[in-house]
Amino acid sequence: MFPLSYGRRTFAAGLATRIRRRQIDEDGGKMPLILATLALCIREGLGQPEWAALRSIFIGEPMSRPSIIALWKKIEGFASSRGETETFGTTKKRVSAALDRWRRQQK
After folding, report:
1. Does some domain include residue 44?
2. Largest CB tally within 10 Å, which of 6, 83, 99, 102?
3. What CA–CA distance (Å, rounded) separates 101 from 97?
4. Helix or strand or coil: residue 46?
């Protein structure tokens, strides 16, 4: 067995997502958030969808992975629970709302 290169990992993640999407199209159901964001998380080097959402919220401001993770740890308690099949758009709204609540408390 050989380790997958970065490109092969993102390809494999994208392929798994496409296969599941095809199954959903044929059989119904919803795409799990984790699978829907897998390639994005691999590409960005982020361990969970909420971290990717934070990165997208701060798109104009470069943030390191450690900074994103540290910020998430601060605001996580202000976030509502993740829905298993919520969209990434919903995740971004949920994370943004948590960030707003945390900022208001800091004042």
Report:
1. yes
2. 99
3. 6
4. coil
Residue 56 lies in a domain: yes
Look up residue 34 and give its amino acid.
Answer: I
Cα 56 to chain centroid distance, Å, stands at: 9
73-107: per-residue pLDDT in tens? Answer: 999 999 999 999 999 999 999 999 999 999 999 98
Rounded Cα gap, residues 107 and 99, in angstroms: 13
Contacts 24+ apart (CB under 8 A), 64-69: none
Residue 80 has a pLDDT of: 96
- Structurally, how many domains does the chain consist of? 1
Instruction: Name the nearest CA neighbour of 101 among 79, 68, 83, 82.
Output: 79
Closest CA to 46 of 75, 66, 16: 66
Structural domain span for residue 97? 6-106
94 in any annotated domain: yes
The reply to whether 1 falls in a domain is no
Cα distances (Å, whole numbers) of residue 68 to 3, 32, 54, 77: 27, 23, 7, 15
Structure confidence at residue 31 (pLDDT): 86
